Amino acid sequence: MSFIDADPEKQGSNDNVASTGSSENVIPKEASLRPIHGWKWAIAYASMISTTFLFALDNTIVADIQPVILDLFGEVSLLPWIGVGFALGTMCVLPWGKVYGVFNVKYVYLFNITLFEIGSAVCGAAPNMTALVVGRVIAGVGGSGMYSGTLSFVAMLTSLKERPIYMAGSTVIWGIGSVLGPVVGGAFADSSATWRWAFYINLPIGAVFAPSYLLLVPSVDPQPSKSWAEKCRMIDWIMTTMFLAGSASLVMAITFGGTLYAWSSGNEIALWVVAGVLLVVCIVLAKYHPGVDKDNRLYPAHFFKRPILVNLQLQMFLVSGIVLAMTYYIPLFFQFIRGDGPLDAGVRLLPFIISMVVFAMGNGALMPKLPYILPWHLFGSALVVAGTALLYTADLSTTNAKIYGYCILVGAGSGCYAVAGFAVVQSLVPVKDISNAVGAMAISQDLGMVIFLAMAGSIYQNLALQKVTQAMPTLSAADITNLVAGTSSHTYKALSGEERDLVTPQITDAMRDVWLFFLVAGVVSFVLTLGLGRTRLKGANDTEGEVECCH
């Protein structure tokens, strides 16, 4: 049954449904428009956020298992692709957002779940590094579609009053999955199940929730009057292609610079040039694209005319990037300064996890009552700045308690405003732009995660390669790349105690520049909060359509 064709007595009259202009996206304005309630809705929502959890888990699960994979398959030149391949797949989150606004949401959602599970199976069964990378790309495409689908369902099936808590739930689950990834990956790497179950685990979890996906998740057709051909013409295929190609070039340029390719090499220069040209093309197409109606273009260019929307997207870009990259480098830091294995190092993320979850849930629950967003962002970004600044001072002599405290500051600070953005932007735009707002925030979040991870990796690997080479000139570049991946790597295990004492300070010193990168990002986020003014989330006492904000 299509959602919009439901019984009027159960769903409300057509007056309660808003059209999205030329796109005619139908979006319910009240929670009562949901076709299911009570325990059915609770299970359906739980199944939706389970896909968010799996997507987030896969985002970081390779953080602690790369050395084990490298020891098995070799092919050190392909090692960066394990992370980059998934990241490139997740760039589809913006196109998927547009697809969800045109085609039946449930069917697209189920397709992406299937795609993600196929990618996970390919990764788990991979006989070599190439197959693993292919599986990661497939899982990234499907995972980004699952995530975008969950956000679309929440935007369509909840009211503005209740949306913050549902968005908070989804974002918190994403955060938990992201920070648990290294823990779960490390646990499998250290167990008899082996690292392959870090990917296989997605299959039984998906099977458990399959009945809910099929039977309880509502069927929502945002364009019921359009034919398949008409719906296909509503997708901006040209800009989608340009965007994905440009994103791929940018991520590869950042990731491979100084490691796989010399910064001055022809390959590296070509990647930067292609990325720059395609970025310009995308900007032009967003503004001038005669073949596509402006409401159907991949990115809503009119958002650029509202500084508050641009500000919130930049904030999402920064805080999401910091959070995800921290989940990679906190365990790695503990591996080298304390000699932890993958599991123990991953467990040390718990202070960061717990603080972020507590503050994010608090934000989701309290924001309808404390709707002005400036205090949340100001306090949160200040904590992030303080935490990353203190991490920059950490070294081999810093106690665990202090490092945990620094991580708690970053986790609590990011939790204060990492969740808020999705709900706030939806309250700042007309109903017809809600799907665009969700898509814009989702791609800002994803770009932040991908670019921060790529930049942090480039900083770390380039500096570590330089410093370790100076300390141990007999090691090859391939050996050093293997070494800095973690203490479970074959190269690190082969070092004597004296050699480990020699290289560890060099590696942790290289990591200080990663903390500095996060600190700079936190400062930028703090400065941007000054432009939020008196912007507020619509509260319980507001009427539909009334939004107070600074433009």
TrEMBL record:
Annotated region (Disordered), positions in chain: 1-23
Bilayer-spanning residue ranges: 38-57, 77-96, 108-127, 133-158, 165-185, 197-216, 237-263, 269-288, 308-329, 349-366, 373-391, 403-425, 437-460, 514-533
Source organism superkingdom: Eukaryota
Primary localization class, coarse: membrane
Transmembrane keyword on record: yes
Coiled coil: none
Membrane topology, as annotated: Multi-pass membrane protein
Record field: compositional bias (Polar residues): 13-23
Subcellular location: Membrane
Record-level GO cellular component terms: plasma membrane
Record-stated family: Belongs to the major facilitator superfamily. TCR/Tet family.
Protein name (database record): Major facilitator superfamily MFS_1
Organism: Aspergillus oryzae (Yellow koji mold)
